[in-house]
Q: What sequence folds into this?
DNA sequence: TTAATTTGTTAGACTTATTTAACAAATTTA
DNA sequence: TAAATTTGTTAAATAAGTCTAACAAATTAA
């Protein structure tokens, strides 16, 4: 864990770290060119970013060399990716957002949500993933029906409970 | 509805419009000073922003006069506020985020979420607000319990259903 | 109705992130 | 290995949004 908690990085700089980490996973080494292509910016912009991130101790980059994340840089990249993943999951699996739109949204929101929101959203997805019986929750199916039709359907379970009460 | 759909405003400019609209609701007239105080920037910054927003046809501002939103400006302000409101609602009522943190998060996310995410989130909140019997959904109570204790509790309804099946 | 205070404006500077253009190093290929 | 190509670097320019500082207009108080 890094000593300095808050590097106060901009969305842009977080993006550089995130993408560098992603590239490293694929290719083992990361060059200016790769980052430039992935982010859709010119290599001179990448250079400027790397300079700034170097000064903050988040990347290592020698002239004409490969780009490496420091452990602090890796830590931040990991956090951003985690935020990205949970947001994408929520948007696609719960809200049924189209994949491409969900991706766009997650790529922006990943830089803004608080630790608390990340934590609670994570717990929400854990909660939804399966109930104690290992089933997807009924309410989510009902919500998807509501999205499709605009109509709320009666909760079967609740209906059962009501029936039981009536029988008493 | 404005003819020009996409004014491609920055978060900052959207914030100016949003806050101008909020101030107008309270005070009927809006001055540079009010905006400056609310956003925590110097009045020279407000001036620069108003100039830029004027050029885009979103505000009207004569030297030393009051600040007014045009109908296009109002429309954008309304959209931003709507996004803000639904996000805040979701964060506080579903995820149980602390009010202050939720506010911070909503104030950032309101500038980034897509139309689709806004729509779906709105529907989600409509869905959750009440079921057909006018009750808050059981699953939300169970989620709050999960947040508190870290333990999933058995869904009573599902239990009932299971019992019924066994009886058959 | 002057003087003091508040509010608004302008010009110029700074920061962040980008670009283009020129050039330099590294790599490929002939 | 020399030439061609790709990749990386630097300097200078641009744009957005902010600030400070100096000043101007409007308002309030004496």
A:
């Amino acid at each position: 864990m890094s000593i300095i908690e808050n590097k106060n990085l901009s969305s842009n700089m977080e993006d550089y770290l995130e993408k560098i980490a992603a590239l490293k996973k694929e290719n083992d080494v990361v060059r200016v060119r790769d980052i430039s292509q992935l982010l859709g910016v010119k290599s001179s912009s990448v250079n400027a970013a790397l300079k700034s991130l170097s000064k903050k101790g988040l990347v290592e980059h020698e002239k004409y060399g490969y780009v490496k994340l420091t452990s602090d840089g890796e830590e931040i990249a990991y956090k951003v990716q985690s935020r990205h993943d949970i947001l994408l999951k929520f948007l696609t699996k719960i809200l049924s957002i189209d994949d491409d739109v969900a991706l766009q949204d997650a790529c922006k929101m990943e830089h803004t949500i608080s630790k608390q929101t990340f934590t609670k959203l994570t717990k929400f997805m854990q909660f939804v993933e399966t109930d104690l019986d290992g089933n997807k929750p009924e309410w989510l199916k009902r919500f998807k029906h509501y999205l499709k039709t605009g109509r709320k359907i009666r909760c079967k379970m609740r209906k059962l409970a009501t029936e039981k009460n009536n029988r008493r």
In short: Residues 31-33, 36, 43-44, 46-47, 63-64 of chain A lie near DNA strand D (CB under 10 Å from a C1').
